[in-house]
Structures are given as structure tokens and as C-alpha cells.
């Protein structure tokens, strides 16, 4: 698998490093990148300004059957 890199500014890097240890930053980024790619596949003319990241509550799956 190829690795892709993007530059980030120093302030952003420091803020990422300051996150609590229990937060798995790579898992959050993986999910965000998957969503970005899906949207770009639908409409390749989108620009970074077209994206807004929001937080939503997790769906309650306690009553669901596991297969």
C-alpha cells in the first residue's frame, strides 16, 4: 500500500500531539479520509472549502442482533 503525505502547519501538529493518549488519531483520520474519498468519487470538482467536519452521536445498536 502506498503512503500519502500532506503537510500540516506547526500549530496543528502541536495540537495533535497534545491530544490525550486514549484518543487514536489515526482511526479518526482513516474514517474522515474514507468519507472524503467517497464524496470526491461522486463529485470530483469539489474543493476543500466544500467540506465541513462535524461530530454526531453514535447510533444506538444495543438492540441489534449480531451475525
Largest sheet: none
Question: Are there runs of 5+ residues with pLDDT below 50, and where?
Answer: none
Indicate the percent of residues in helices.
25-40%
Structural class: mainly alpha
Rg on CA atoms, Å: 16 Å
> What form results from the Cα inertia axes?
extended
Mean pLDDT: 85
Q: H/E order of the elements?
A: HH
| DSSP helical segment count | 2
Distinctive features:
extended; mainly alpha
Notes on the protein architecture:
This protein has 67 residues and is an all-alpha fold. Helix content is 39%, strand content 0%. It contains two helices and no strands. It has helices at 10-17, 25-42. The radius of gyration is 16 Å and the shape is extended. The mean pLDDT is 85.
Summarize the structure.
By secondary structure, the chain is an all-alpha fold.
Amino acid at each position: 500500500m502506498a503512503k500519502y503525505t500532506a503537510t500540516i502547519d506547526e500549530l496543528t501538529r502541536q495540537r495533535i500531539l497534545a491530544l490525550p493518549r486514549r484518543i487514536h488519531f489515526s482511526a479518526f483520520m482513516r474514517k474522515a479520509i474514507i468519507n472524503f474519498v467517497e464524496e470526491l468519487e461522486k463529485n470530483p470538482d469539489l474543493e476543500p472549502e466544500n467540506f465541513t467536519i462535524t461530530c454526531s452521536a453514535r447510533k444506538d445498536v444495543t438492540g441489534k442482533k449480531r451475525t
